[in-house]
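Async update (no meeting this week)

Hi team, since we skipped the sync, here's where things stand on the single-chain job. The sequence we agreed to prioritize is pasted below, unchanged from the tracker. I ran it this morning and attached the output directly underneath so nobody has to dig for it. Comments welcome in thread, and please keep replies under the output.
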Amino acid sequence: QVQLVESGGGLVQAGGSLRLSCAASGSIFSFNAMGWYRQAPGKQRELVATITSTGTTNYEDSVKGRFTISRDFAKNTVYLQMNSLKPEDTAVYYCNARTLYGWTHNWGQGTPVTVSS
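Output:
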């Protein structure tokens, strides 16, 4: 079972940028897709960005044009570049992997992002 460890979160002012990393303990090559989720206080976890094994990306509407997901197979790492951050982006960010059976239940600790106005 591949373990996923997120890092790179922090406190940033509105309009700033952060790059999140998700390091996998094993190969991510075999997964259908990798994704970044976020959970804001008092809200459900939502999927914000995905990248398939062929490199196709997809974004939740509120982050389109501001966030970019990428992955490095050699490093078994997935990234989320977040630009033009807004206070509503404040959340704990998690990565996950999708198999033929759907997204795994193997959640990491996440990395918190706080955007101040």
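Quick observations from my side:
Residues 54 and 80 are 17 Å apart (CA to CA).
The chain is about 0% helix and 50% strand.
Reply here if anything looks off.
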